[in-house]
């Protein structure tokens, strides 16, 4: 009964004209950046954070969330028609989706992706709503020691589930933690690593780091790529899959949704991991498929598209209930909440229930809008693919620069963005994933605060992290993750998996 009342409050909040408008704007922008290759949701969220400063908190978060799950939809369009992942989680969709387009079944592939995503998004929202109350109740049992241990688990999860080298992922986490130390020490009031620069007394601006590492760096990287694309626009065909294709794809949608829902909650998880895992599962389960995987199998579209959308929805659970971001996008959502003076965590539900439940219910409304946007308007999205990137890049750069400046009306923030843009480009060349850096940067100050608080409450006794059952359980889980990933067999399979995605 309580859940129904909460959902009623959520719908009452989300269905106001203002919030509906920003939900529509969010999913529209999400679809756009999903369709346009090279501009991912992380970069877009980083660019739009300053814009949300002037909006009401609920509208701002609804719009940002819409951009995230909207990008999962839009990314499939480009992946299927152009063989370019508009968004990282659409990498796997390229494999079979593009082959379906080459065979004249682009319409069926696009419809399968859209309907599978809608179903998965709906299930994801139900899971978020159902788990919200129990998770918040659990979170209230957390003290400083438990929060510290949870963040340790989150960072180790981000390392384990990051693509590429483990050593590089650890290095990125450590760099993020070090960057988070810059600024005034909360306890002593002493400036740390500020180099007598007054603007660094409050620390390095989150928007400057995110915009540089993701937004600007992404643009620099894309400037290297030649703008030659083969677009299958003339052979989209009828939009709905045949009855046989529908029956064949339905189990893949269910499996992808279930797997994505689980993986979305995990630290370091999210849409990309969910999409890849779902594709791998389908290849393992399906024996002697009529159309081999990699040659236009509809399950190779249905499973990852369902998984990435359900993973995108359920990744909100730890962020909303515990205040712990499981991936880079959720780290940016935490940054958005901080901009609006909202402390992420379990208290949000009690202190601002309309925001909490309004955001959850807006996800389902957004998913419904996305089905309407994606299927009838495919022709328009296809036309967007013909826009030369040389026209887009300058506009994006100007917009980014204005956005960074507008947060504090300070040119120093724009100056700080430049070295992080260079760093982001270097990371790309060195194949270092920047997502763990952002997680380390966000979680670092929170970890330090909880570590110090736990040590103060225990009068300097470090065993407090091991004598409290919840804290001990989280640390054991973190240690188990390290042991599992260090096992030769698991390590080899992990490397093979991420190598396959990269290819």
At a glance:
By secondary structure, this protein is an all-alpha fold. Helix content is 74%, strand content 1%.
Number of domains: 1
Written as H for each helix and E for each strand, in order along the chain, the element string is HHHHHHHHEEHHHHHHHHHHHHHHH
Q: Report the principal-axis shape.
A: globular
Structural class: mainly alpha
- In whole angstroms, the N-to-C terminal distance is 49 Å
How would a crystallographer describe the biggest sheet? 2 strands, antiparallel
As a percent range, the share of strand residues is under 5%
Low-confidence stretches: none
Per DSSP E runs of 2 or more residues, the count of β-strands stands at 2
Number of helices: 23
Give the averaged pLDDT, no decimals: 80
- Roughly what percent helix? over 70%
Strand arrangement across the biggest beta sheet: 1-2
In angstroms, what is the radius of gyration? 22 Å
Task: Name a few traits of the molecule.
mainly alpha, single chain, two-stranded antiparallel sheet, 503 residues, 23 helices
